[in-house]
TrEMBL record:
<keyword id="KW-0833">Ubl conjugation pathway</keyword>
<dbReference type="GO" id="GO:0031510">
    <property type="term" value="C:SUMO activating enzyme complex"/>
</dbReference>
<dbReference type="Pfam" id="PF00899">
    <property type="entry name" value="ThiF"/>
</dbReference>
<dbReference type="InterPro" id="IPR035985">
    <property type="entry name" value="Ubiquitin-activating_enz"/>
</dbReference>
<dbReference type="GO" id="GO:0016925">
    <property type="term" value="P:protein sumoylation"/>
</dbReference>
<comment type="similarity">
    <text>Belongs to the ubiquitin-activating E1 family.</text>
</comment>
<dbReference type="InterPro" id="IPR000594">
    <property type="entry name" value="ThiF_NAD_FAD-bd"/>
</dbReference>
<keyword id="KW-0539">Nucleus</keyword>
<feature type="domain" description="THIF-type NAD/FAD binding fold">
    <location>
        <begin position="17"/>
        <end position="327"/>
    </location>
</feature>
<dbReference type="GO" id="GO:0005737">
    <property type="term" value="C:cytoplasm"/>
</dbReference>
<dbReference type="InterPro" id="IPR000011">
    <property type="entry name" value="UBQ/SUMO-activ_enz_E1-like"/>
</dbReference>
<comment type="pathway">
    <text>Protein modification; protein sumoylation.</text>
</comment>
<comment type="subunit">
    <text>Heterodimer of SAE1 and UBA2/SAE2. The heterodimer corresponds to the two domains that are encoded on a single polypeptide chain in ubiquitin-activating enzyme E1. Interacts with UBE2I.</text>
</comment>
<dbReference type="GO" id="GO:0019948">
    <property type="term" value="F:SUMO activating enzyme activity"/>
</dbReference>
<protein>
    <recommendedName>
        <fullName>SUMO-activating enzyme subunit 1</fullName>
    </recommendedName>
</protein>
<dbReference type="InterPro" id="IPR045886">
    <property type="entry name" value="ThiF/MoeB/HesA"/>
</dbReference>
Amino acid sequence: MVENNEIELSEAEAEQYDRQIRLWGLDSQKRLRASKVLIIGLSGLGAETAKNIILSGVKSVCLQDNEVLKEIDLYSQFLAPPDKIGENRAEASLVRAKALNPMVDITTETKAVDSLPDSFFTSFDIVCATGLKQEQLERINNICRDKNKKFLCGDVWGMFGYMFADLVDHQYSEEIVQHRAVKRGPDDTEKSGAATVSITVKRRAIYVPLQNALSADWSKPELRSRLRRGDPSYFVMKILLRFRDEYNRNPDPAKRKADTEVLLCMRDELVKELSLPVGFISDALFTDVFGIVSGAAAVVGGVIGQEVVKAMSQREPPHNNMFFFNPVKCVGFVELYGQ
């Protein structure tokens, strides 16, 4: 939990964040202003996430990436200019990131995540990881959980995307609206209408680690019943993560035919492994998982940024625990896995 007792907003900050203060209150903005955020991976999704978090008015943001900027990144990565191709993606994004909000302290880290010590990740209040292998995601998630630090991760492949959140034991406030009958009359017994009253209630949400969410037991009746809804996004995510783990890369637009065949083979293996209905994960879902489409990055990056703001401000119910964007249905939805 971020403490904000000693944080005071300057006159310039109060003016800059006036709309946000009116929206979620001064105390919530103070908590945001005290928050230190790590963003891993400056692809198109990382850039969208960084933009939203920087504009919200946190204390500091660290951009971590050991990859160099490639021409394909420019289709969705708007923080790095074209003349920075060949340079580190985080450092290439720094100038434009700082211009978004000069009141936020923005730094970079160019070492690979595997070479960074546990203490690096726990020096932040919340970690947002993109573009990593499953083993790396689980390692960082467990490091964060051990120190009660919040963790989010997500990815976009083509037009498909997901987000996972582990806020450990999260407490927050929620404003709810109640309708109460109003009694008027000489003896205060006659009902003459209703009044709308807003009250703030304290709530608590318990989360599970990523490892639990990705190893959900699909033999359980409560999970099997979800198959009737007909959305296979969870399984598409697992297949795409498996592809990255095995090939150390994402599906490549230049190898579309060969990579599609690999993905379909992985699909067939997963269907057999989990006894899923034949045809449940259609071929069409793998036609748009190449590169990063900027629109999908904007959707998923917007959700991640929103969840960081809610988590750090401790205001309004956060998503628990997975968000998916299905491009075939053009719909986003939240589901809980691992409990």
